[in-house]
Amino acid sequence: MSITNPDTSALDADVIVVGAGMCGLYALKVLRDQGHQVLVLEKGSGVGGTWFWNRYPGARCDIPSLEYSFGFDPELEQEWVWTEHFASQPEIERYLNHIADRYDLRRDIRVGTGVTAMDFDEATNTWLVETDSGERLRARYCVMATGGLSAPNRPNIPGIDSFTGTIVQTSLWPADGVELEGKRIGVIGTGSSGVQTIPELAKVAAHLTVFQRTPAFTWPSQNKVLTDDEQAAIKTRYRELRREQYESFSGTAGTTGAVILQFATDDHPILESTPEEREAALQEKGFSACRIWTDTAKNLDANEMAVELFREMIRRTIKDPDVAEGLSPRGFPLGCKRPVLDTNYFETFNRDNVTLVDLRRDCIEEITPNGIRTTHGLIELDVIVLATGFDALTGALTRIDIRGCEGRLLRNEWADGPHTYLGVSVVGYPNLFIGVGPGSPGVLATYPPQIELQIGWIADFLRYLGEHDLTLAEAQQSAQDAWVEHVNEVSIGTMFTAASCNSWYNGQNIEGKPRVFLPYVGGLPLYTARCHEVAADGYAGFTLR
Ligand code: N01
C-alpha cells in the first residue's frame, strides 16, 4: 500500500483498535474514558471475537465463569448473572454484547470491516490502516486486539475442496447453524474444540467418525448450574477474588478447584509412590490421579508414570480395548499441550454410533466428493467438521500486511519466530501495541484479568505520551533482545519445550512454522511487575520522541 495522503490534520482516530473481542472492547472502553477518539475495526458481523466465531455445538469456556469476566466495574460484576460454572459460548457472547451496550461502545465499532494492511508513515508518525473494502484510515496509534487463537488452520488435505457435502470449521461455525440431525458426520481433530463438540455431535448424528492424529489429555469438567447462593458467595468477595487472580500465575483464583494449568505443589513425588498409593489415587481422583504429584512437571520419568495412570483410567472407562488404546496419549508428556476439560468425552466412544479412526495407524489419504479416504478405505460422510485449530498467537498478525519503518514487513521479520518487547511492542513498528500477543502470558493466563492489566498498561503509556507531548514510542533493539531471551529462558525445562512436544504453543501444528515457544511462561505476576517497572522507569527500553 502506498501512502497517498500524508495530511495528518484529519486523523480518523487517535487510536485504531483492530478486533472487537474481549481485548478490543476493553481497549475501546478504557481509551475512550481517557479522552482518546477510538475506532474499532472488526471483521465479524458482531462483537465477541472468539465467542462470536466459535459457535460449534458444545463450545464452552474452561475457566470458571465468575473468573472469566471483567473486574473493572463492580456494578457490572454484581448485575451479570452467570448460569453455569463454565459458561457456554452463547452466554459469553451475550455478556460481551451486554458490555458493548452498557458502555455505549457500538458507536465506535465498525463491524464487517477486516483489516488487510497497515503502513507506518514515518513523515507523520501515524499509521495508515487499509480495510477489506479498500478504505484507508489514519490514526496515531494502533492496538492489535486480534486474538491469539483467531487465525483458523484449514488443513491442506488433498481433495478438501472436492467434498460435495457440508464442510465446516469449528472456528468459523455459521450463525444459523449446520444441519446435523441424522447425518453421517466426520470430525478431524481432537484438541479442545474437537473434544467439546464430539459428545454433542454424537447425540444427533446417524454416525460419527472421529479422525484423531493425537489423543487428548482431557479431564471431566464437572460443570454444573451455579446456584444463587454459590454466586452470591463469590460476589460478596469479588474484590478479593480479583486480587487473587491478578496475583496468581495463570490469572485464576481456583473457584472450582479446576486450576487446570498447574501441577500439584505439595511434596508428593510419584517416583517414590507405591502401587497401592497410585491405585488409591485412581480410586479417589479418577482421571485427575495423574495431576496430584509434584515431580511430573519437570521430570520426564515421573511424567510418564503419571501418564500411565491417565491411560489406566481410559482402559477402565472404554469398553473396547482397541479403542481405549487408540485414545491413549503416548510419546509426549502430560502438560506439554493445552489441557482440555470435557463433558462425557471418553464415554462417547462407548456409543454404537461412534467410531474412532486412529491416524497413528491409519492415515488420511484424501477427501473425496463423498467422504474421507484413509489407508483402510473410504468412509462416506455427509458433513465434515474441521476441529483443526489455529495458527496461534502470530497468525492473526502475520496474515495482515503490517509494514513498519523503511517498509519492513512483520511477516518476514517474524519468519524465525516472533520478536517483541514485553509482548506488546516490536522494534521498527512504532506506536503499534499488541494485546495479549506472543511474548506475553497470553494463552497461559485467564484473558479478562490479563487484558485489564495489559491494556491498562498500554492506556497509561498513551496517557504518558500525551502528557509529555510525545508522538512516537518504539521498542529498542537491546530491550527487545533481552526480553526475547528471557521468554526463551523461562520456558526451558518445562514440559512445554520437551523435545517430544509438538503443539500450537510452539508452532508445530502449522507446516513450516518455526519451533519457538510463543507465550511467556514466567506467570502473570512476574510479567505485570516487569511492565510496571518499565513504566516507573519512564518507559525504559522505549525510544520516545
Ligand atoms: O485446536 P488444537 P483447538 N489431520 O490445535 C488436529 C482454545 N480453546 O481448536 O495434535 C489430522 O488444540 C490436531 O492434531 P495434532 C484452547 O486454548 C479453548 O481444538 O496437531 N488432524 C489436533 O488434534 C485450545 O488449546 C476452548 O496432532 C489434524 C486438532 O486438530 C486452543 O483453543 C475451546 C490436522 C487441533 O487441536 C486450540 O484448540 C476450544 C490434520 N491435517 C479452543 N491438523 C475452551 O475454552 C490438525 N489436526 C474449552
UniProtKB/TrEMBL annotation:
<keyword id="KW-0521">NADP</keyword>
<dbReference type="Pfam" id="PF13738">
    <property type="entry name" value="Pyr_redox_3"/>
</dbReference>
<dbReference type="InterPro" id="IPR050775">
    <property type="entry name" value="FAD-binding_Monooxygenases"/>
</dbReference>
<keyword id="KW-0560">Oxidoreductase</keyword>
<keyword id="KW-0274">FAD</keyword>
<dbReference type="GO" id="GO:0004497">
    <property type="term" value="F:monooxygenase activity"/>
</dbReference>
<protein>
    <submittedName>
        <fullName>Unannotated protein</fullName>
    </submittedName>
</protein>
<keyword id="KW-0503">Monooxygenase</keyword>
<comment type="similarity">
    <text>Belongs to the FAD-binding monooxygenase family.</text>
</comment>
<keyword id="KW-0285">Flavoprotein</keyword>
<dbReference type="InterPro" id="IPR036188">
    <property type="entry name" value="FAD/NAD-bd_sf"/>
</dbReference>
